[in-house]
Design brief:
With 489 residues, the chain is α+β, with helices and mostly antiparallel strands. The protein has 3 domains: 3-10 and 106-173 and 245-488, 5 Propeller (Tachylectin-2, Chain A), CATH 2.115.10.20; 22-99, no CATH class; 178-242. α1 (33-42) packs antiparallel against α4 and α7 (211-219) packs antiparallel against α9 (232-242).
């Protein structure tokens, strides 16, 4: 039923970012390696150091637009602590910074799980065309994931054309995020950290606050309260929770396709995965772009929220409640009955529905749909946010069947009562066959969101967790092929 298009994206290992690199990290060495490296650099003759610095900066500049500032910034992280107020020359800083800088190929291993949304800029198009922003799961060394972006244009002639992805890549500046007292209290409670000490700190916070305000509230507590032996762990939990909200801001001159969202928090240490973006259709919504994504620390997963007005500045926040657990939350593009709704899969097996008053604290409403067909034998999940149609909410799904084979399917939900399933696909819309079977993870076709334009549903799809292809289907054709649930019993 799906039409395959020639448009594609392949993983590109030349797309790299530079990041701070502490030599010996994780090796449990007892030697002060940083101080030794600084000492070695400071003993290099000035004339030789100038030549080395020039060569290093020129080399990094081929893949880093602000190479010198990156190197000097990483040098300052170390030098300000080790050499104190001693003046260092630019050459010394550049060479020193290079010892504490490593490059990371964000797509060195794979590229997959795209999500499509309307691009914030629709200028310069012909009648009938639509510019699309596509989020990407980029997988690099150590299977660490980041969130990248691509652009495409859906033509009036029913074609999909990816734009050129610009380089070098740009990392965002990171700032502390804001909390509300109500959400902070709920988040601590959900983690079992809402004790008397936490309650006392919360009482000293303003209605909206950040990590600095938390430190001020802690400082205002009586020393007898803070200095008890049992206070260390609760205080650490408070500080860690306050730091679990952050902002990412990219330079205004960067192209969308050069932006990459990297892990920031300890709970994201092993990756930020599978962003499911949607553009709000609520008329009073001042934040049009929202996405859920999965934070992975190497052991546990947690759903988080990204919000943005322009895909240049992003707010990242923790989601809480029994309706925000496990992987694969997907937000509805508008409120239904004055409530935020989301698809979820808290039990790891069935598609459920969750509701929220503020978009941050979620309550589970129960199972929406369970595995029914053999290609859904192991588990079910969504493939992106629901798409509003005149006939109901169209939900792309993935089923996992024998041999851990992932296939795409679809559900149709009642427009006013999304807990009611109207129709479903009994056969996969797409299954891995032929050369689609092989990949970084074999037997997988997967998407994090399609987009509807002029009666055609466009679905960018990750193949084998290693490359991206594009498929389309006429909405009317898809709906006619779905089985009425009431008729099938």
């Amino acid at each position: 039923m799906l039409t395959a298009h020639t448009a594609s994206l392949e993983a590109d290992p030349s797309r790299v970012v530079s990041r701070f690199f502490p030599p010996g990290e994780g090796t449990h060495t007892v030697h002060p390696r940083m101080a030794q490296i600084v000492d070695r650099v400071l003993h290099v003759p000035d004339a030789r150091l100038e030549n080395i610095a020039e060569a290093i900066a020129a080399d990094l500049s081929t893949q880093q637009h602000d190479a010198e500032s990156v190197l000097i910034g990483n040098a300052r992280v170390v030098a300000d602590r080790i050499v104190g107020g001693k003046h260092l020359t630019t050459a010394q800083l550049l060479v020193l910074g290079s010892a504490f800088t490593a490059q990371f190929a964000v797509e060195g291993a794979a590229l997959c799980n795209p999500s499509a949304m309307e691009h914030p800029s629709q200028g310069g198009l012909r009648d009938g065309e639509l510019r699309v922003a596509v989020s990407l799961r980029c997988i690099g060394e150590g299977h660490v994931s980041s969130i990248g972006f691509a652009e495409a244009v859906v033509g009036a002639d029913d074609t999909w054309t990816f734009g050129r992805r610009t380089a070098p890549l740009s990392r965002a500046d990171i700032f502390g995020g804001a909390w509300s007292r109500k959400h902070f209290e709920a988040a601590l409670d959900s983690e079992g950290e809402l004790d008397d000490l936490a309650s006392a700190v919360i009482q000293g916070l303003p209605e909206r606050f950040n990590s600095t305000d938390v430190e001020s509230a802690i400082a205002m507590l009586p020393s007898e309260f803070v200095m008890r032996p049992g206070s260390h762990a609760p205080l650490h939990a408070l500080r860690e929770m306050a730091g679990a909200a952050y902002r990412c801001v990219f330079p205004s001159e960067t192209d969308l396709t050069a932006r990459v969202l990297m892990p920031v928090l300890p709970e994201e240490l092993h990756g930020v995965e599978d962003a499911r973006f949607t553009r709000s259709t609520d008329s009073d919504d001042s934040i049009p772009y929202r996405a859920t994504y999965t934070a992975y620390n190497g052991h546990d997963v947690a759903p988080r929220l990204l919000t943005s007005t322009d895909l240049r500045s992003f707010e990242s926040h923790r989601l809480t409640g029994d309706g925000a657990r496990n992987k694969g939350m997907a937000l509805f593009p508008r409120r239904v009955g004055d409530r935020h709704l989301a698809l979820s899969r808290g039990d790891g097996e069935n598609i459920s529905l969750s509701t929220s008053d503020d978009g941050l604290m979620w309550r589970d409403l129960g199972v929406l749909y369970s595995p029914t067909e053999m290609w859904e034998l192991i588990q079910l999940g969504n493939c992106g946010p629901p798409i509003e149609t005149p006939d109901g909410w169209l939900v792309l799904t993935h089923g996992v069947g024998p041999l851990r084979t992932y296939c795409l399917g679809a559900l149709l939900l009642d427009i006013d009562n999304p807990m009611r399933v109207i129709a479903r696909t009994t056969e996969p819309l797409l299954r891995p066959e032929g050369d689609m079977v092989d990949g970084y993870v074999p037997r997988v076709v997967y998407s994090c969101g399609g987009i509807l334009h002029r009666g055609t549903l466009w679905i960018p799809v990750g193949i084998g967790d290693s490359r991206i292809r594009v498929y389309s289907v006429e909405l009317d054709e898809l709906l006619k092929a779905m089985t009425d649930v009431s008729a099938s019993g």
